[in-house]
């Protein structure tokens, strides 16, 4: 934490959404100005979110409703990363039971897998705010029958206007505990998602940093790739957790406004 943050070499920034740019459907103060600030400096971005519920087009519309303008190509979700993983590893399989919302379902379909509830080759899980007990039971039974188990992300909670609410990891955990089978997790903190995002940017760990609100996903993912990281204290993780925990960001800021003030040349 005593080493100056390497602002001077940054060309790209990976930015989490929930808890950094917005909370639920409410933009966080300074979010639109911060993205404009980066563009003025020629820094390209990927909005890298573990939330797999929406498609990139839906995220663009969601942000637009908050007064934040982004391009579809700037959105990179754990659903997209999951689809890329499935495309590479499907090896002749053809069906999947998907517990998730539009973003994940579309990504699985784009990977060439058909939806199936009976004897699927895969069980693919993400956040699903309409999940039922029978859905979880069907997933568990499919895995017990030999289906491969994939989770879009491990987040047990995510920030909303009401506070922290259950995330994909909470649902995945129920099926994992039922079956005793560990899923392949695609999203942060596993390095695959950031590696894919870096590839889409043409960036490297030397000229890119991760900006997020969670030590256990955003900051740990960056650490796993030896990439510089910035924690903003507007989401899940707290300053106390930084002091007492084992995951250490390279820079901690209270807000996006404070980060802009810290940026050299401003």
Distance between the termini: 22 Å
Indicate the percent of residues in helices.
25-40%
Q: How would you characterize the largest beta sheet? A: 6 strands, parallel
Sheet with most strands: strand arrangement? 5-4-1-13-14-15
The CATH superfamily of the largest domain turns out to be HAD superfamily/HAD-like
Question: What can you see in these coordinates?
Answer:
The protein has 10 helices and 15 strands. The chain folds into 2 domains: 7-50 and 188-262, Rossmann fold (3-Layer(aba) Sandwich), CATH 3.40.50; 90-185, HAD superfamily/HAD-like (Rossmann fold, 3-Layer(aba) Sandwich), CATH 3.40.50. A 6-stranded parallel β-sheet has the order 5-4-1-13-14-15, sandwiched between helices. A 5-stranded parallel β-sheet has the order 7-6-8-9-12, sandwiched between helices. The chain has a two-stranded antiparallel sheet with strand order 2-3. Helix content is 37%, strand content 20%. The longest helix is centred in the N-terminal third of the chain and has 12 residues, at 78-89. The mean pLDDT is 95. With 266 residues, it is an alpha/beta fold. Helix 4 (102-110) links the parallel strand 6 and strand 7 (114-115).
